Amino acid sequence: MMDIAQEYQRLLALKTTPVGVKLCRSEEELSPGRVPSDKLTLCQLVKGAANGGWLLSCPAEMMGCFTAQMILGFREPSERDVKHHARQFTDDMEVARRMVETKPKLPPGKLRGVLVGPLGAFEPDVAVFIVDAFQALGLIEAHSYSCGETLTFLNGVSSAVCSYGVVTAYTTGKPNLSVPCIGAKRYGTFQDNELIFTVPEALLEPMLENALAMERAGQWPIPLVGAFRSPTAGPVVK
Q1: 177 in helix, strand or coil?
Q2: What is the Cα–Cα distance from 23 to 115, expressed in whole angstroms?
Q3: Quick one: 120 exposed, middle or buried, by C-beta within 10 A (0-12, 13-18, 19+)?
Q4: Ramachandran class of 51: left when φ > 0, alpha when ψ lies in -120 to 50, beta otherwise
Q5: How far apart are CA 186 and CA 168, in angstroms?
Q6: Could you list the pLDDT tens digit for every one of the 238 residues in the chain?
Q7: Are strands 56-59 and 113-118 parallel, antiparallel or unpaired?
Q8: Which distant-in-sequence residues (6+ apart) come within 8 Å of 192 by Cβ?
Q9: Considering Cα of 118, then 124, then 127, then 128, what sign does the dihedral take?
Q10: End-to-end Cα separation, the chain, in angstroms
């Protein structure tokens, strides 16, 4: 898995380390990481692993993001969630209720916590890549190379890392691309050029094999031929 992380970082020229996230059902699964001294958000944990190489265990009671607590099934959804979404994203309580109800989330009471660290430090459920648009295109092509499948991405208000990132990839078994939400920017310090690309563990090796095949064929990285070259002019190199 460490070799996979290094190869992805090389192929995509990533500025940060790919991150692994494990949805832990026991204390034992949480044991490899260190527990933060203060409560943190999932987006902070991911950024810490990506930028600093942190390996952190976050038991349910140490999750600092109120919405992520619900998304990860650490607690039941409540009216407070609806009021929070109404205060932040709409002036209509029923619209806010739909926002809460339609967000991808895990069943309450199933997880003990999450383990977050550099990809390769443990067996993850989902990998998180912090990418720009060009790097995201490479990952999309790596997925479609062997299946021809069109990817449809799921996004919504807030919960970009937890719901539309980790949980969506985990529950659908497909990659997802999400735009950092207000919390990811405010607390996780995601920048304007950064997007969140999540990949379920089962697809990491096949997508890497596809990317390497594209590299051998001269199709990776995506060759740029200039803004004024006609697309009918043929290959630059024969």
Answers
A1: strand
A2: 7
A3: middle
A4: alpha
A5: 22
A6: 669 999 999 999 999 999 999 999 999 999 999 999 999 999 999 999 999 999 999 999 999 999 999 999 999 999 999 999 999 999 999 999 999 999 999 999 999 999 999 999 999 999 999 999 999 999 999 999 999 999 999 999 999 999 999 999 999 999 999 999 999 999 999 999 999 999 999 999 999 999 999 999 988 887 666 666 777 777 666 5
A7: antiparallel
A8: none
A9: negative
A10: 36
Token duo for residue 167: 């949980």
CB-based contact 198:210 (threshold 8 Å): no
> Given the structure tokens 């190489």, which residue do they identify?
53
Identify the sign of the CA torsion 205, 210, 216, 222: negative
Question: Token digits for 98?
Answer: 């739909």
**93-102 vs 79-89: helix crossing angle, rounded to 10:** 110
